[in-house]
Amino acid sequence: MGWEEVKKRIRRINYFVCAIGMAMVIPLMLLTFADVMLRGFFNKPIPGTFELSEYLLAIFILLGAAYTQQVKGHVGVDFVTSRLSPRPRAICEIITTLLSLFIIAIVVWYGWIEGISEKTVSDQLRIPQYPFRVLVAVGAFLLWLELLIDLFGSFGKLRRNEP
Fold first, then answer.
1. Residue 94 carries which DSSP code?
2. CA Rg, the chain, in Å?
3. Cβ within 8 Å of residue 133, ≥6 positions away
4. How far apart are alpha carbons 11 and 5 in whole angstroms?
């Protein structure tokens, strides 16, 4: 299996995982709507809405980070690098991607360690915390893979001397 096939599979996985995360927005919206309506009209809020909203948002954000990197949706500041010629720009991309890979690797490692050792549950609904802590490591690992693809792309740009 060649690099292009690996890259294609990673991107397909990230797309699928992001779709799962996006699907969590629907129950989040419905839960919030129902809670607001019940609270406003009947003074009967749904117990645990805040906890469930936190978990659904965590799923949405963590599973969407890698795909956002894939489509270059993260905020980038290029007012300095846009003025550089292709070679120095590629070098800057390589340096920042290497730093990002290092930082995200730490997040993966500590997310996994914290996730597998977590024993607590939420206050009101008694939902175990560990799946959401492990999800930090999973989402970060997918982001790390996407950054690795970007790193190889930057090395290719450097070699070809293209912007």
1. H
2. 20
3. 111, 114, 115, 118
4. 10
Half-sphere exposure of 81 (CA within 13 A, CB side): 15
Answer yes or no: are the C-beta atoms of 51 and 124 closer than 8 Å. yes
What is the number of other CB atoms lying within 10 angstroms of the CB of residue 64? 23
Q: How far apart are CA 126 and CA 120, in angstroms?
A: 9
Helix (H, G, I), strand (E, B) or coil at 128: strand
* pTM summary value: 0.89
- What phi and psi values does residue 56 have, to the nearest 5 degrees? -65, -40
Question: 56: closest CA among 19, 34, 25?
Answer: 25
Q: Are 63 and 98 in contact (CB under 8 A)?
A: no
Report which secondary-structure segment, H or E, holds 151.
Answer: helix 130-160
pLDDT digits (tens, 9 = 90+) for 18-73: 999 999 999 999 999 999 999 999 999 999 999 999 999 999 999 999 999 999 88
Angle, CA 142 vertex, CA 125 and CA 77 arms, to 5°: 105
| 89 closest CA partner among 99, 104, 78 | 78
